Amino acid sequence: MSINQHGRAFAPGISLRPLLPWLLLAAAVSITMMVLGAGRGDRFLPALAAGLLVALVVGTGLGINAPLWSRGSHPLAGQEGPAVVKEALRCNVWLAAFVYAWGASALFAMYTLSDLVWRHAFQYATGAAVFAASLGIYGILLGNARNWPVPPLILTIAHGGAVGLGLAYMIGDGKLATLRGDWAANEVFLWGGIAIIALCVMSAMTQTRVTRSGTGDGASR
């Protein structure tokens, strides 16, 4: 297991830092396009902007997690195995925080900088911001505490399941076809929910690989 200059364990080769400027730029462009679409009543532009950002997030998550699923290689072998898995899951947490922060920013921007009106916009935006901050703090703690175990699988399942139920309700209730002012917010909920579910699935696959490889809680302490 490698130790950085701050005395914390880290996994070489797994980091979001090189991609962070591009993710932030993509989020800014996405939000700008969504505001323009919301102001013109163009439903396609916000959906396109959100979908492209989610594709970038999911692609980033796959780039981090997919190498750990390969049966041809053994990335979990040796003493660095638990650190690699823990850092991958930490990146997933940061990506989820990024999605919630993007959602909060998009909601604030669309219902502040355009003529679109929805009375619950700032409530949901604030809630998403709180989720983003909470996940960000958890990601920091997960990286600073060397004795923290790999996050339990049940938390990942609960997170993904809750978001999945919310999406199922929204789609089943016909909210994507609404003509009211929340139509733009529903695009944020839809695409943000897809991103969170995808990240949860990837995390679950990585955590399952941990269990099968015998590098669970005990080995990661």
UniProtKB/TrEMBL annotation:
Provenance organism: Hyphomicrobium nitrativorans NL23
On whether Transmembrane is a keyword of this UniProt record, the answer is: yes
Name by which UniProt lists this protein:
Uncharacterized protein
- Keyword terms of this UniProt record: Membrane, Transmembrane, Transmembrane helix
Q: Which residues cross the membrane?
A: 20-38, 44-68, 89-109, 121-141, 153-171, 183-205
